[in-house]
Automatic annotation (TrEMBL):
Modified residues (4-aspartylphosphate): D54
Limits of the HTH luxR-type domain: 148-213
Keyword annotations of the record: DNA-binding, Phosphoprotein, Transcription, Transcription regulation
Keyword DNA-binding: yes
Lineage: Bacteria, Bacillati, Actinomycetota, Actinomycetes, Streptosporangiales
Keyword Amino-acid biosynthesis part of the UniProt annotation: no
SMART domains, sorted: HTH_LUXR (SM00421), REC (SM00448)
Alphabetized Gene3D superfamilies for the sequence: 3.40.50.2300
CDD domains cross-referenced by the UniProt entry: LuxR_C_like (cd06170), REC_NarL-like (cd17535)
Protein name as catalogued: Response regulator transcription factor
Ranges for domain Response regulatory: 3-121
Length: 220
């Protein structure tokens, strides 16, 4: 059973999302919150698998809530997915850097929304190729983070290759095809790389790949 917390300051939207989620046999909404501070308290209480958090909320916004969740070792099993009304704004990029596992636009189709929740529950990033392109374009403007790069020597050659492909937006199945290995082996390479680079999830691994210089935009 996938346990979900919903955090949005619009009750009508929360009810709509909850109705979709509660209709599924493998998903349970364990709590709802109307602001970031409330969501943080409820996450600590219920320890959901997924926290769907609106980026713009009163008292404490979704970005700060995400930052605090990612910084708390007791909440390491909570996957944060940011909800937004818009596209690839600056604060969405910052949310990924803060520890979010991905983001969903609120006008998403219901079947895509449910699929995304299940993807996030597996620990996979909700990073479509278009989102990866956004990350690339942002990192063109940023200096390399040499502190992050110091962990790269612990990666094996195959782990490095898998991380590079993940940073290009490839799924585990696509990485497996490219590396001529099984999807399970591809997932193992990614998981080991996350451990070695202290990445909270796949989304943060992609961010770290660019931040460390392991993957560099062509026009850096």
């Amino acid at each position: 059973m996938i346990r979900v917390l919903l955090a949005d300051d619009q009750p009508l939207l929360r009810r709509g999302f909850r109705a979709m989620l509660d209709a599924e046999d493998d998903i349970e909404v364990v709590a709802e919150a109307g602001n970031g501070e409330e969501s943080l308290a409820l996450i600590k209480e219920h320890l959901p698998d997924i926290a769907l958090i609106d980026i713009q909320m009163p008292v404490m916004d979704g970005l700060e809530a995400t930052r605090r969740i990612a910084a708390d070792p007791a909440l390491a099993g909570v996957h944060v997915v940011i909800l937004t009304n818009y596209g690839f704004e600056e604060y969405v990029f910052n949310a990924l850097r803060a520890g979010a596992g991905g983001f969903l636009v609120k006008d998403i189709e219901p079947e895509d929304f449910l699929h995304s929740v299940r993807v996030a529950a597996r620990g996979d990033a909700l990073l479509a190729p278009s989102v990866t392109k956004m990350l690339i374009s942002r990192y063109v403007e940023l200096p390399l983070n040499t502190e992050v790069g110091t962990g790269l020597q612990d990666l094996t050659n195959r782990e490095r290759e898998a991380v590079v492909l993940a940073a290009q937006g490839l799924s585990n199945n696509q990485i497996a095809d490219r590396m001529v290995i099984s999807p399970m082996t591809a997932k193992t390479h990614i998981n080991r790389a996350m451990i070695k680079l202290h990445a909270r999830d796949r989304a943060q691994l992609v961010v770290l790949a660019y931040e460390s210089g392991l993957v560099a935009p062509r026009n850096r």
